[in-house]
Specification:
963 residues, nine-stranded mixed beta sheet, disordered N terminus, disordered C terminus
């Protein structure tokens, strides 16, 4: 519930007063300018943390000098420094930076160094680890298809282009020089960790790898496939490899060492650099990140840089550094050509302090990154890099965006082989525009699955200009918007062009354009240009506006279309709220709704939003009062026990009309231990006639491989809305359910056996509510869905059915807003209530003295209900809103709020406001003019012209239909 107790004028005045009272960086600037020496050198705040953790050690730093300074000038400054104890590691010549170790007691003396502008901690970047749920990723399907076919590489091979005379630098943990598939491909080896190299064949040093990650990456870029009988190879098996070891045996690299490696590769004259490492980044400090500046410099010199997006998905805003660099090709991970795997990092990338500011789309494309056949260092950890069953110890199945990036580097080598003058900009444009659309969100897939054959064809045609993202709207909010009015944060559209286009007109068409806010035109130059796009749903749309909307945004030169972007959104009603228990998870096995994106999309189609109850770090207690504010409650794979009070609250919630969705997890029959709180689960389920059995299911032939159960595998399926279209389920790790037929309303719906002994899905009606129990929590996970599709199981359809079951026929209260206007002592309550057959809404307000005010209630739009009231005094007010539909379903909202005594009269506030406007008018002038005079094209007036297909669209991230 949102309670607003000040009108807009009073709120604006108080905000401005607060700004003046609070420390103001704009006002302080002039005061500090007299102390130019103090303000000139910026010190990375992370240095203080490092000193705290390492009080006696030297501090690894990177010193940033003024942009444009030359290597010789910086070298002279460094040579002339009279600072004791400083140990210079490297003076860069591509970027104005110097890496060094410095004692903590002389750090302050660096502020006096000529032309120094910043000092950053020489932080670390690492091999990209998989996120918590990597143990639920899919198994390799039978009939493995190698990436060369999926990415179109074979077409260029057939034309005679395999990467010959092209050099790819692999910056990683090294590479196994005597791997059969890398022999005669490695033309140089440089080790920045141990200060060794193999640039002179007479020195006796061979390329090596003390981790295994680098060998796998190098093979995917240019492995010959000799030991597979040339059945499988890297993407550019004719390319040369420069192996640069910048990561230690644990897969970690100092920023400065990684930057040295990039500089070295550029000096060597490589054509492509592949980087499969990354790390966190801080907005506002990117100008001190040497890896970012090195990547940009290498690209400016004509080197195409390909970088892994990261393995921190499916959460949004998780692109790693240096993968956030606009000019680089940032690569996410797909599961073959089926879709984006859940661990692949998602965009957007958002800059608040950096230039250009705003929200930007990343990644750029995806390539296979799950269980991809790769080369293996023979001493690699067999758990991380297990030997392949078919091809032996020299090969492994490699997962992560780390696997995706070197494959794209190989594709660039193929393009460079065919087009010798290929630039980084041309390579990126061709691969993006030529990608296969996987119909997933652009913040997950970029432009889609890379296809080098189509990219090569595009380079034969007219100069390329594209817009990114390729569709709008995008994550993190997705394509579904609520009818009551929803405004999104504006998104930057990046126009990438091979040539200068000049000033282009921006036009929109289709019924979706009524909700799009966009600039009128954009100046497009060679490289990267930007304009802003936003989404705004009017607050007072009628219910008749619910449906699907489509359109196109086009860049035009006169009447010629230069580039286009699809517009696709769905306006939905409000279907209620699903509360997810995030408080009863163990810190060793936390779960997050981010990992069941498909389920979230299906819920959103029904207008249902997911909210979390607490977290592992800040757990919350389950109470009936909390539960009754939501329509459904979900418990999934929780490990901590529930109190008796919490269990009773859940029972009462269901009895009063709530829906409980509960998913168990694995029971290990060998150890006889459950991986979830089985005793609490059974206490919760006991009144409903359902119990979790101590019975193991789902463990397949090898780790992370499950089994299929159901009608086609010796089981049975009952006729029910939950099992419509569901005959078989893929189970990874689970335990079965028992159903007591003597309990009214309890029934098993899908069974492992024809005798109907062990259930996978059970259902119960209890009081006014219902319970859905599923035997394996990983059924929801996006990563399991792909396996299920390959196995012919119906997990995806089950998720859709479960989402449909979350809907309720009772009234749903979306929001309640209280506005207070003390100038005339009047208040207004507005409630947004959705129900298909609502017959009565009553609003009762209890004053501080106990007097109750009832109605009258004004209804509009079919979901907006308002009541005005007088304010006799300050104090606590009690609001009671009761909604009833024709079937007698009732929803009640009770809230208490405080109307404070007025500390300042409105006339005083207005006087202060007008005075302050004169003070800050100059500061706000430019912003105001840009926003209100020059900036946005008003969206067209909405017209009720929507397209209803009877069912609504599938989730934007759906894999191909199950057959």
């Amino acid at each position: 519930m949102s309670l607003s107790l000040l009108n807009k004028t009073r709120l604006a005045a108080l905000l401005i007063m607060g700004l003046l009272i609070a420390p103001n960086p704009i006002l302080l600037t002039s005061a500090r300018s007299s102390s130019a020496q103090i303000a000139r050198v910026f010190i990375d705040p992370k240095i203080e943390d490092f000193v705290t953790d390492n009080p006696d050690g030297k501090i690894p730093i990177i010193m940033k000098f003024q942009d444009g300074m030359k290597f010789n000038d910086i070298s002279k400054i460094i040579e002339g420094m009279d600072i004791p104890g400083i140990e210079v590691r490297h003076v860069f010549h591509l970027i104005p930076m110097v890496s060094a170790y410095v004692p903590r007691n002389v750090l302050g003396q660096l502020e006096s160094v000529t032309s120094l502008v910043g000092i950053a901690l020489d932080d670390k970047k690492t091999i990209l680890p998989l996120t918590e749920h990597n143990d639920w990723i899919i198994s390799t399907p039978e009939g493995y298809i190698h990436s060369d076919e999926l990415l179109g590489a074979t077409d260029l091979w057939d034309q005679g282009y395999n990467g010959s005379d092209v050099t790819i630098a692999i910056i990683d943990t090294g590479a196994m020089g005597d791997h059969p598939d890398l022999q005669n491909r490695i033309i140089g080896f440089k080790d920045f960790i141990n200060n060794l190299d193999d640039l002179d064949p007479s020195d006796g040093i061979d390329a090596y790898d003390d981790n295994g990650h680098g060998t796998a990456c190098a093979w995917l870029a240019a492995g010959t496939g000799k030991n597979t009988g040339f059945n499988h190879s890297g993407m550019a098996p004719g390319a040369d490899l420069l192996i640069i070891k910048a990561l230690d045996a644990e897969g970690s690299a100092d920023n400065s060492i990684l930057s040295q490696a990039i500089e070295y590769a550029a000096d060597y004259g490589v054509d492509v650099i592949s980087i499969s490492v990354g790390g966190d980044w801080t907005d506002g400090l990117l100008s001190l990140d040497s890896t970012i500046l090195s990547v940009k410099s290498a690209i400016e010199l004509g080197v195409t840089v390909v970088i892994a997006a990261g393995n921190s998905g499916p959460a949004t805003n998780t692109i790693n550094s240096p993968g956030l660099v606009e000019e680089a090709i940032t690569v996410g991970a797909s599961v073959a050509d089926q879709g984006v795997v859940d661990f692949s990092s998602r965009g957007p990338v958002e800059f608040v302090s950096e230039q250009p500011k705003g929200v930007f789309a990343k990644p750029d494309i995806v390539a296979p990154g799950y269980q991809v056949l790769s080369g293996r260092w023979y001493s690699s950890d067999p758990f991380e890099y297990p030997p392949d069953d078919d091809f032996g110890p020299y090969y492994t199945l490699f997962s992560g965006t780390s696997a995706s990036a070197p494959q794209v580097a190989g594709l660039v080598a193929l393009l460079k082989d065919k087009y010798s003058t290929l630039t980084p900009l041309q390579a990126k444009l061709a691969l993006m525009k030529g990608a296969t659309d996987l119909n997933e969100d652009p913040m997950a897939q970029g432009w889609g699955l890379a296809n080098v054959s189509r990219a090569a064809e595009l380079l034969e045609l007219d100069p390329i200009t594209i817009m990114s993202p390729r569709r709008f709207p995008v994550l993190p909010d997705g394509t579904n918007v609520f009818v009551y009015g929803e405004t999104r944060k504006p998104q930057n559209v990046t126009v990438i062009s091979q040539i200068d286009r000049g000033q282009l007109t921006i036009t929109t068409s289709g019924n979706a354009s009524a909700f799009i806010e966009v600039d009128d035109e954009v100046g497009v130059s060679k490289g990267y240009s930007y304009f802003s796009i936003g989404l705004a749903i009017p607050e007072d749309l009628p219910l008749s506006a619910i449906g699907n909307y489509f359109g196109v945004l086009e860049l035009k030169e006169d009447s010629a279309v230069i580039a286009s972007m699809d517009l696709k959104l769905r306006v939905t009603t409000y279907g209620g709220s699903l509360l997810v228990d995030s408080s009863h998870h163990s810190s060793l096995d936390p779960d997050s709704p981010d990992s069941y994106r498909y389920f979230g999309e299906y819920l959103r189609e029904q207008g249902i939003v997911m909210e979390e109850l607490g977290s592992v770090e800040a757990p919350a207690t389950i109470t009936l009062e909390t539960l009754l504010k939501h329509e459904a409650f979900m418990i999934m794979d929780t490990e901590l026990t529930y109190s008796e009070e919490e269990i009773e609250a859940i029972h009462s919630f269901v009895k009063q009309g709530g829906t409980l969705l509960i998913l168990s997890e694995f029971y290990n029959s060998t150890t006889q231990v459950a991986s979830f709180a089985i005793d609490s689960y059974n206490q919760i389920l006991e009144p409903f006639g359902i119990q979790c059995e101590r019975y193991e299911i789902g463990v397949g032939s090898s780790a992370y491989v499950g089994r299929v159960y159901g009608a086609n595998h010796g089981g049975a399926v009952e006729n029910h809305s939950l099992t419509e279209g569901v005959e078989d389920l893929y189970i990874l790790y689970g335990s079965t359910l028992s159903v007591d037929p003597s309990v009214a309303g309890a029934q098993g719906l899908l069974w492992t056996d024809s005798a109907r002994t062990h259930a996978l899905i059970a259902y119960a009606e209890f009081g006014e509510g219902k319970v859905i129990a599923i035997s394996d929590g990983s059924t929801l996970y996006d990563t399991t869905i792909y396996d299920a599709i390959k196995a012919g199981a119906d997990n995806l359809r089950l998720l859709e059915n479960v989402a449909n079951e979350m809907t309720t026929k009772a009234p749903r209260v979306l929001n309640v807003i209280v506005n207070i206007n003390r100038s005339d002592n009047r208040g207004n309550v507005t409630a947004y209530i959705f129900d298909e057959d609502l017959v009565d809404v009553s609003i009762t307000l209890q004053l501080p003295n106990g007097t109750k005010i009832v109605g009258p209630v004004d209804e509009s739009l079919g979901y907006k209900f308002a009541m005005s009231f007088d304010i006799p005094s300050a104090g606590f007010y009690m609001l009671n809103i009761t909604s009833i539909d024709s079937a007698g379903h009732t929803k009640q909202v009770i809230e208490k709020f405080l109307i404070p005594v007025r500390p300042v009269e409105d006339t005083v506030l207005m006087t202060v406001l007008l005075g302050l406007l004169g003070v800050i008018g100059i500061s706000l002038g430019y912003v105001g003019l840009k926003r209100f005079i020059g900036g946005k094209k008003k969206h067209r007036e909405w017209e009720p012209q929507w397209i209803d297909d009877g069912r609504g669209p599938p989730p934007s991230s759906s894999p191909p239909e199950i057959v």
